[in-house]
Amino acid sequence: MTETGTTALPHALADIRDEFLALGLKDRLQLLLEFSNELPELPEHLRDKTDLFEQVVECQSPVFIDVKIEDAAVQLYATAPRESPTTRGFASILVQGITGLSPAEVLAIPSDFPQMLGLGEAVSPLRLRGMSGMLGRTKRQIAAKSAA
Amino acid sequence: MPVAADPAPQFREFAHPERLVSTDWLAENLGTPGLVVVESDEDVLLYETGHIPGAVKIDWHTELNDPLTRDYVDGAGFAALASAKGISRDSTVVIYGDKSNWWAAYALWVFTLFGHEDVRLLDGGRAKWQAEGRPLTTDEPEIAAADYPVVERDDSRVRAFRDDVLAHIGKPLVDVRSPEEYSGERTTAPAYPEEGALRAGHIPTAQNVPWAKAAADDGTFKPKAELEAIYRDGAGLQEGDEVIAYCRIGERSSHTWFALTHLLGFENVRNYDGSWTEWGSLVRVPIAKGSEPGSL
To answer: Measured between CB atoms, which of B43, B62, B188 is closest to A84?
Structure first.
């Protein structure tokens, strides 16, 4: 691990980071697009319940998240329109990287994880705020739900 | 040689009908020599999911903005960008994008800063093209690099800076943000402060005309009479007025700048691209709160 002064990243997130950093700028965008295409559909029982989800207002496009903790494992659900592939890509990275972790592991993810992917130049720091917002809100939901 | 304008009847009433093309026109003219189609979106990946065949992509943030200074690229940067996209100085450039052409209008406005003469918007943008079932492709276009001269940016005619705005207060100002942003009451969730500006509200005396009022449901511009009702009767703009429009970072106000300049024929409209993310953080500039324009 090369980060200084931060907790080591969970394996799945570290793998995703390494995958991005191994590529040039243009290919990083393509990889983000692949993540975007992989964002899982919401399970049947949640599809008509997105009004109970939390909107990530840091994103310019409508994206909604919901966090469940089942058997001490975190499950992140996210939905964003097809017309917003960047936002979908961010959501997909978090869904793939977080699902199955313990609440404590998610809470320990460094808040600047979005900045570690080398996407600043490719998508602009402004757009990365959306992913920071998503991560922050996910953690806050977990903190609230673990305390309950 | 510019490509002939779209003679569609719905554009004829506008002050500069040659600034708009319809989806029908574009479909017929794809591949015409001298025409370059440009997609410019808010979402940096949307083009990659499928674009109009032959269209090139220009990203507002990573390509039109200077990566270091908060400014646009300079003359050499724009020349390099245009060349790489296959655009010559005499190309007819048709721009389209997502979100009712916000970002397309923004790109068009930046082209205007460099005095690119023939630059047009696809009325209705990406969504209309798609809704009509017209083709999109993920094939990368074959671009032959073009020669584009280094032309220095002219910020004096259509761009306003903060000192210009300060001196302008009292003359027509149009705030094109949402009513909530204008009034300063827009709420963000607890613990998630608005990062873009330190203060909320609007520039005193500015009229609030949300940009989307200029757009019909399908993203096309409304007919001239409706636009007149909004900007002349509603916001009180008059012939000969000097007008400055602003939003958060100058993209939505580019849409309004386009409507006022090219559709209604106002000749002295500037876009304040610093907009609220600058004004709302400046020390000691006047700010008004609430739904009334307020006074200085």
So the answer is: B43
Vertex B275: Cα angle to B270 and B280 (nearest 5)? 145
Q: Is the Cβ pair B62, A140 closer than 8 Å?
A: no
Taking CB atoms and an 8 Å limit, are B192 and A133 in contact across chains?
Answer: yes
Task: Report the residue of A26, A28, A29, A131 to disrupt the B interface, i.e. the one with the largest count of B CBs within 10 Å.
Answer: A29
pTM above 0.95, yes or no: no
Write down the H helix ranges in B50-173. 75-84, 102-113, 125-131, 162-168
At B142 the pLDDT is 94
Taking residues B200-225, report their average pLDDT. Answer: 95
* pLDDT above 80 (res A56): no
Contacts of B26 (CB under 8 A, 6+ apart): B37, B52, B94, B96, B122, B129
Tell me whether B63 touches chain A (CB under 8 Å): no
Q: Any idea which residue has 């220009």 for tokens?
A: B58
Report how many Cβ contacts below 8 Å link chain A to chain B.
53
* pLDDT 10s digits, A86-109: 999 999 999 999 999 999 999 999
ipTM score of the complex? 0.81
Catalytic positions of B: 247
Which residues in chain B are closer than 8 Å to A89, comparing Cβ atoms?
A: 45
Residue B296 pLDDT: 80
